[in-house]
Amino acid sequence: MSVIGAQTANINATAGMPPPRIARMRRATFFSFVGLGTIVGTWLMYAFLSEHGMRWSEWALLAVFLPLYYQLNVGFWTALFGVWLMNRPKPDSLNLWRTLKPEDHDADITASTAIIMPVFNEDVTRVFEGLRAIYLSLEQTGHSKNFDFFILSDSNQTSQWIEEETAWLELCRQLNAFGRIFYRKRRKPINRKSGNVSDFCRRWGKRYRYMLVLDADSLMSGNLITSMARIMEKNPGIGILQTFPKQIGAETLLGRVMQFAQALYGPPFMAGLDYWQCGEANFWGHNAIVRLEPFIKYCALPPLPGKEPFGGHILSHDFVEAALMRKAGYAVRLLNTNRGSYEEGPPTLVDMLKRDRRWCQGNMQHFWLLFAKGWHPMSRVNFAHGILSYASSLLWFLFLVFSTFLAATPLPHVDAQAVRAEQILLGVTAMLIFLPKLTILLDEIITGRLFKPLKLRLLTFISSMADTVVFTLMAPVLMIFHSQFVVYTVLGKGVRWVTQRRKLDGGVDWAEVFFTFWGVSIIAVIWGTIGWFVSHSFFLWFCPILVSLLLAIPVAIMVSGRRSGLRFGLFLTPEETDPPSVLAMMNDNLTEIKGRIHLPPELEKHHGLLQVCLDPYVNGLHVSLLRRRKSIDVSRSYLDEIAKRLIQQGPQALNAQEIKAMIHDTETVTDLHYRLWSARDHELAPFWATAIRQYNLAASSPFTHTLAQREPA
Amino acid sequence: MEAVNIQFAPETGTEEEWNEAYARLADYFRSYQLHNRIRRTQLILETLRRAAAAHKLDTKRTPTAHSIEEARRMLKEWLGAIYSDMNLNESQLEAAGRLGFHLSGGPARWPNFFLDKDNLSQEMMEAMRSAIRASGPGMQVSKMTPRDMDLGIVSEVAEDTFDRLGRHPILRYAILISIVGAVLGYLYLLLR
Known about the structure:
The complex is a heterodimer of chains A (713) and B (192).
Chain A: H1 20-49, H2 56-87, E1 113-119, H3 124-141, E2 147-153, H4 158-175, E3 181-185, H5 192-204, E4 210-213, E5 219-220, H6 222-234, E6 238-243, E7 246-247, H7 253-277, E8 288-291, H8 292-298, H9 317-327, E9 331-335, E10 341-343, H10 349-365, H11 367-370, H12 377-408, H13 416-447, H14 454-491, H15 510-534, H16 536-550, H17 552-560, H18 574-577, H19 581-594, H20 601-605, H21 607-614, H22 616-625, H23 636-649, H24 656-663, H25 666-678, H26 686-698
Parallel strand pairs in A: 1-2, 1-4, 2-3, 6-9, 7-10
Antiparallel strand pairs in A: 4-8, 5-10, 6-8
Helix pairs in contact in A: 1-2, 1-13, 2-7, 2-12, 2-13, 3-4, 3-6, 3-19, 4-21, 4-22, 7-14, 9-12, 10-12, 10-14, 12-14, 13-14, 14-16, 14-17, 15-16, 15-17, 21-22, 22-25, 23-25
Chain B: H1 15-30, H2 37-57, H3 63-82, H4 90-103, H5 106-109, H6 122-130, H7 152-167, H8 169-191
Helix pairs in contact in B: 1-2, 1-3, 2-3, 3-4, 4-6
């Protein structure tokens, strides 16, 4: 592929950056509404609380109420502006799709684009079948020739690593895509995902004008990818173009509820966000295209002051990269997409909390950047909103604590103005919570944006009512955990980089659920007892939250199960009823692989290791891909000793570090292959004796273990 | 390679040992995805004969070990003939050569030429030579260095505070416990 320069000719260099006048006006409008709503709410609260003068606990209550009400207003007005934008007859003047003319869709794409997928111990089959679907979808557009694919692996589990290599080779063979799909494994995963992407940029960034970043669970259609490249070509002022990734593939109740909610409420929220964020939108780290030259030049991440978790390496790098890109003068835009950009969500509540813990730490780190010099003001707002999205849980928790204090020292509210303020505040708050949902639902019932058949629209209505119950039951539990995460981060308790589980393997882990949520139920009992003694009316007011906390364990089990309402037609999404071709293709292949012959569990567990040691082709592939080094980190005798232990005692006798050391050395890997085959049966660990006997029976080809078998193109 | 001659009478080693070596070689050549059973048998017998000769000279090593070593030697000789002008070192030759045979569809297309250095198919050689792949395109190195960021006065103060707290975990937890204690104490006073 030819290497093309980084500049786009004959187009206004700032195209894609919304005019400052429009951006200012939009923000003035939006934040006026938000500000007004917040001030009115806070004033009503003050009027209610100050009937007998303000005590410190009332000031404290008001202090935590203010940011919470601001956040509520931001969500409310974003959704309402979104619904308005989606329904107004005149198209949005800033809509990026308008920059493409009909003839542009057939024009050749001359810009070189790298589609990168950083992976870390992910499900190899899902990664490569997803990649295959994207690749083929892109091929179908007829404009794929300047797109290259990179799998950037940081996997530190040996079997995973080998399976990635074999899947890469087989995929390239089946698609005849050697020289188009590349695999890179980092020896040392410095700075996690952002380090992986930076490493790609340093090595190959100059070859490409754009970089499309995918997550391991991402799926994108070829049409959307080519359109994004075209939009970037037409708008050189855009540095990052982010799509709205819709959730797919959920099997549990939680996953399907989240998926449904995102499909129904997501588009108006995205439209609203696009309205007021303009050229200062956020980057979510994947399903987005990035202009590489400014990214390399300006978006390298500095370490934060202090130690992890609050300082050190930036975890949520995407927000910071967006801010840096904007600081460099390039727009970060949100592309309104309904189809073509997908991702998967966590299957269970425990998995969701694990992910939130990581995100929470990442967002809390942005505290340092709030006051840094040179940011666009909207970048600060984005950082603040990110922090608030988790800190608000702690604020809500404190709000309830202060409310308990106030309930313990009740003062009669007799003043008509205070009573009216309380009633109005209650009404306004209920409106802020429920009106966006009702408006979006009404919009769907009238317009049928998701579903045209009336039956499906009615099912959407029922599903929306049902998801309110699920979210109401989960919200207090999330509040407790998010508060805990915030406190943990401030106290210096960091999180480890772990693989995200995306599918529920087997059933619900009851023990994990119990040990995760029992503390929440205990809090409910203690708080409920205090509330009962404090005031019976307070207890009743507080009951919905207490019940949710008390039922945390059964609710977590229920939402993590596979009874997801599908058989009743609940929580349906357009991707379930009418899957796009890219998704259908991937699902077909994943179904085929599920039916393949399995080796005994012990062999399956170490399948990658088994293959690299026994299979002459996999061994050859691995050695070919290893970088040859003049010296090794450990001594030859050490490698020899662990290789001997591996042969005589099996993989369980070695720890991960020992296996890693061995598998990184070309000589040892080659030698191991022959030593295993040369050993007599009684010299081998039972693992290897069984493996040698059974390996050839299970694999028709060593490279099809993780991929669907499709004839080469 | 000569036509199949099933006569095999090793002078050293036991029958059990040679049977084990046979079984191992059978598994080994199957792992090359050679589904042509006649060819596999030919290869096993040829390798066993060479192994028997080697075992006669060195009886300390088992027939199985000799057999696999001979198979490796045959592979190296065969690959050496195919990639003779490609300047590959020993481990590259073995690794890339095996992979080349697989990628060119060798096990299904040319099973009869496998390990037969005296009878090389031109088509197979071309296919194997062109199948040597790289995992990434040529690098074009860029510099990507973070720029200095002025985090402002608030961050400086916060950094000092967190740094101090970070050095004194007991102080950190003491502050937290004091806050929780104060809250509970206040609640107790209210409920008294």
